[in-house]
Prior knowledge:
This protein is of the alpha+beta class. The protein is 50% helix and 8% strand. Keywords: Oxidoreductase.
Amino acid sequence: MSETFTWDNVEFDLSDPAFVSDPEAAKRWLEGPRDVCPGRFSDNAEVYVVTKYHQVRGLLADPRVSNHPPEGVHLDSMRKRGVPEELLKYFDSTIMTMEPDDHQRVRGLVTAAFSAKRVRSLRPRIEELTNSLLDRMDPAGVNDLVADYAHPISTTMICELLGVDDEYRDQWIKWTGVFTTFLRPDPKLLPPSLHGMIDTIKRLIDARRAEPGDDLISDLVRISDQTEKLDQVELVALALVLVQAGLDTVRHSIALSLYNLFTHPEQLELVKHNPGDTVRAVMELMRYAGPIKMALPRFATEPIELDGVTIPADGQIQLVVAAANNDPERFHEPRKLDVTRQDNPQLSFAHGAHFCPGASLATAETEIALNTLFARYPDVRLAVDPAEIGPRFLRAVERLPVHLK
Length: 405
């Protein structure tokens, strides 16, 4: 290890609430890749922070890097975040942190649910939903495109896909908001939120076991009951991850895409007038300022040298995807939003074995949400100063008040 590499003066510190809320953090960390540097995760774990595109992309697919933490590390982290002891098993069996063989086994069970064919079959439902949401808005008033549009699109689609009953849908947003914060969760809210999520998943599994439906949870229950490919703890953990990912990522993707188009009028006009190119625009919006700022922590399985720094075996690695997506060595004028950008291998959906299986569905939902809105209301615009609602580092846009006409 370099003699100058120490954790005495950590700049990238997710354990510091001020760092996460600092509006300048995005500018410092997302616009300028740098050499491997020391950082600290939200549980105070020491991490090696990697921001350069070629290094981030390489490590995402590097067999020397694992999502599976060393023995006890992940559980200790969950304990520090306040996860109750009796629920730890569900967070130690997720598809996000499994050993490679287990990950491949479980990932194969959900891939079909997000296949290109399945996503194509869902497009009419997404279009129907977006139009129905716009029908409910007040054309003469101020409407919130997060609460009234992005939120119900993401919630409805993932819950219908998995088979989550209507009665639970709004509650999921509240529960996941407590757990997915990068800051230490509220110790009074976290245990009841986690119990609520897991108890609800268990009830849904029991209901689908008794009366199967045409949904993903029913499919997973059948596989779990008829084969040895998925045990009961893994089944609960997988359903939990899929609901959380589907709710958060799509909601933030739609909201951030709209915000960045509203604040870049010339790009907004291009999207309005070229609906056939919106998928390309969505990829650029994800690159420029998508909801995924960092990959989940990785761990070196053997020593790895980067920028003259030796990451030791079991060293924790934090890949800052947003910085990699803005690396000038890979992207021409990276801080310029260009919805016509052709060469755009952005990493927001990861790369390699852990590439997001729901990427095509998330892209389709965002594409259709943009095209439907702009077709119905081509003059839609923000109703407030962008500075009032602008996202900060690791935070999405929580509200988007707009005039539709």
